[in-house]
């Protein structure tokens, strides 16, 4: 099953993910699961949650840290 993973503002990749967790979808990008939020249908999902087999697109938003 291919899932389109969009890192907002930085492009998208098609990821083959039949099983696994949402954090597994981050592999094509140079980001840590600790610095992003993963959204499915506009709602955040826990990165350690098992991928729902009906999902075909996720958006990943890089979190901004202030200092």
From TrEMBL:
Domain of life the protein comes from: Archaea
Pfam families for this protein: SAMP2
Gene3D superfamilies xref list: 4.10.410.50
Transmembrane segments: none
NCBIfam families: SAMP2 (NF041919)
Protein name, as recorded: Ubiquitin-like small modifier protein 2
Organism listed in the record: Halovenus rubra
